[in-house]
Design a protein that fits this description.
By secondary structure, the chain is mainly alpha-helical. It is 55% helix and 4% strand. It is found in: Cytoplasm.
């Protein structure tokens, strides 16, 4: 392995066997390249397979001192954990140096979400134009909030992913895993209305492979969706963060607050483990405390319990 070719066998493994996304693959490659370059500068002649836990710790210290936040450093640690695990399984190394490495402790951050009332105002009370652009913008918001899908999943939707008979949508999620999400009748009707307007607006010449397209008929792209979400959320909330992922968090939080089963939410979100979904229980508890403090006669009074 050279600084320009960090772990090609490992990268092929995660690409074809683990079926990780191109974005994740690129992150792994860059992390390994950075580690390889660090070793070349600090310990010439030492390649990653020969690095011990002391060298890995030195790199982690270097990353922290360079100003990277803890979540980014922990992602790079996870890359090395996967890399050395691969080397050990294929008998390229005799011991895993990552066994003595622990992730940096991070302060827990609750997901940012929009309250139910502002979301109702946005989707039920604000007027959207009946033309293609107005219908598309509303559909973007309704799909993100009504299904909880990720930005990348939204952009990957095709017209053929809509099953009108079963009232479901098929989503291609992380690790190329498909999941099926139910659609409420009003959302399905909105999709049909949008599709009709799209055909008229572009005279049937919009890209047929993408459900959502830009004003020019090409597949929608991340900046367009982010601009739409930010524009409309700014009408109903003062949250600093107004991204597509905030609508995903809102979807999950509102389901949980209304009594949905945590395992069902996990499946709808496409989480691989329940641990990732359980963060919403903390959010729901915080909301419960806030409601108590605002509404209960004893709420929010110091010295009383």
């Amino acid at each position: 392995m050279t600084p320009t070719d960090p772990g090609s066998d490992f990268l092929r493994h995660i690409r074809y066997e683990k079926r990780l996304s191109h974005h994740t693959l690129l992150a792994y490659k860059n992390d390994l390249l950075q580690f390889t370059e660090f070793l070349a500068e600090q310990h010439p002649g030492t390649l990653p397979p020969a690095a011990d836990h002391l060298l890995i710790r030195a790199w982690i210290v270097h990353l922290v001192e360079s100003g990277l936040n803890k979540s980014t450093v922990n992602r790079k640690i996870a890359t090395l954990r996967a890399y050395y695990g691969y080397l050990l399984r294929h008998q390229r190394i005799s011991a895993d140096p990552m066994q003595k490495i622990v992730a940096l402790k991070q302060s827990s951050r609750l997901p940012t979400f929009v309250e139910e009332k502002p979301m109702e105002t946005l989707l039920d009370d604000i007027d959207f134009a009946d033309d293609f652009i107005g219908l598309r913008d509303k559909l973007v918001l309704e799909l993100l909030y009504g299904t909880g899908i990720r930005l990348g999943e939204l952009l990957g939707l095709k017209p053929t992913d809509i099953n009108r008979f079963d009232r479901t949508i098929t989503v291609l999620g992380k690790r190329n895993k498909h999941r099926i999400i139910p659609l409420v009748p009003p959302l399905l009707a909105l999709i049909d209305q949008y599709e009709q307007q799209k055909r008229v607006f572009f005279d049937g010449k919009a890209d047929p492979t993408a459900l959502l397209v830009s004003d020019k008929g090409i597949p929608a792209y991340p900046v367009l969706i982010q601009r739409i979400v930010n524009k409309y959320l700014s009408l109903v909330t003062t949250l600093e963060k107004r991204s597509p992922h905030v609508l995903r968090h809102s979807f999950a939080t509102h389901l949980l607050s209304r009594g949905a089963d945590l395992n069902a939410i996990k499946d709808l979100l496409g989480h691989s483990s329940l641990a990732a979904t359980q963060v919403y229980t903390h959010t729901s508890l915080e909301q419960l405390k806030k409601t108590y403090d605002q509404a209960h006669p004893k709420g929010g009074k110091p010295g009383e319990s």
